[in-house]
Amino acid sequence: MDHFRFPTPNMCSPSSTNHLEGFSRGTVTRDLATGSVVIVNEERGGYTWSEFGKPTRNYSMLRDTFEITDDDPTSAKVTSHRRTDLSRDGWENHVIASGELTCDEESFHVKTQITAYHKEEPIFERHWQFAFPRDLT
Fold first, then answer.
1. Is 82 a member of any domain?
2. What distance in Å separates the CA atoms of residue 103 and residue 121, rounded to the nearest whole number?
3. In the chain, how many domains are there?
4. What are the C-alpha distances in Å from 81 to residues 17, 40, 51, 85?
5. Is the residue at 83 inside a domain?
6. How many whole angstroms separate alpha carbon 98 and alpha carbon 83?
7. Would you call 124 helix, strand, or coil by DSSP?
8. Of 2, 8, 101, 122, which has the highest C-beta tally within 10 A?
9. Is residue 26 domain-resident?
10. Residue 85: which of 97, 74, 73 has the closest Cα?
11. Domain containing 128: what range?
């Protein structure tokens, strides 16, 4: 049986990546008088690299918040915020997305939105809002 040997692939030189300063932190706050608990997680960071001889930058930020009050499961609320920036050679854009999830005794309720920007001008925006049954959850 003859075996076919693939030729050695052509490869470009690897691009160098520089990490941008960022952070990751979380907090838990509990109110003993009301029984409420709020958990917040925040992260930021990014990197730069050169692609086709053009410096490129990617930077992201996120914040998630979880809230609930003792003995009240319908008080649960989750919010999420995201922002991602991407730029290269005078071209700059960013996308901001956010969402919220709450509930009552019968349903979960969701609100989300996304907005895309070129520089600081919004070029696309969309909002969603819907509910769906808890089905014993």
1. yes
2. 34
3. 1
4. 26, 11, 29, 14
5. yes
6. 9
7. strand
8. 101
9. no
10. 97
11. 32-133
Let me know if residue 115 belongs to a domain.
Answer: yes
- Considering Cα of 30, then 31, then 35, then 41, what sign does the dihedral take? negative
pLDDT tens-digit profile of 47-96? 998 877 788 999 999 999 999 999 999 999 999 999 999 999 889 999 99
Cβ neighbours of residue 13 closer than 8 Å, sequence gap 6 or more: none
Regarding pTM above 0.85, the answer is: no
136 Rama sector, left if φ>0, alpha if ψ -120 to 50, beta otherwise:
left
For the chain, how many residues are written? Answer: 137
Residue found by looking up tokens 């003859």 in the block: 2
- Residue type at 72 in one-letter notation: D
Q: Which two tokens stand for residue 54?
A: 């053009």
b vs e for 55-76, b when ≥16 Cβ sit within 10 Å of the residue's Cβ?
A: ebebbbbbebbbbbbeeeeeee
